[in-house]
Amino acid sequence: MTFNEIMEMLRDIGAPGVALRFALALLCGGIIGLERESKRRSAGFRTHTLVCIGATLTTLVGLYLYKSGLSTDPTRLGAQVISGMGFIGAGTIIVTTRRQVKGLTTAAGLWTSAIIGLAIGAGYYEAALIGVAIVLLAALVLSKLEYFIMSSAKRMNIYVEFDSAGMLDRLVERLEGKGIRVIDIEFTKQRTVSGERCSAVLTLIFKKRQKHENILSEMTQFDGVYSVEEL
Question: What is the pLDDT of residues 129-147, one digit of tens each?
């Protein structure tokens, strides 16, 4: 049996092809999920694996119904998977009290995992495996490049906690004295058992590129500042 004949058999929806599809869905979904799991995200190994397996099964059902002679579009079920993944993906996205949006990468990973599952179910193994490789490249390599670019950008958002409302004016003055312009402020004040607790989200612009970690380190030394975090 030639290589092409073997591939044709594996692309069919017979027992060997179905077994290979589910094995690849388990592998591909698991690889993407492990990367998310390593970063302690809510949707990790099991979630991505189940999404990929479910999408694979959806495509197989569509192909089975079509080959059984029923008058149906075999891609219709797959289309519902792509739109339906928005429901699961939206559940992983949150906006924190510090104006941070988290979960976008996980939501995109789930959506991509579903599409990879559809490709596996259709027997397009090459596209699925290349897709997984590109997803891993984006998650592991491009994330480091993104961090490198953002860590020295001329603009940054920070979240600061300090002891009193008057401290905010002094904080802005000290920043501007270092050549850092504050272009936006979102101020919040709370009363706690221990006294007044204030916080603010500041948008800073630098005249020249600076390491953000150096700015944060300097700000933590300011009197009255409890904590500083880049958003």
Answer: 999 999 888 888 877 777 7
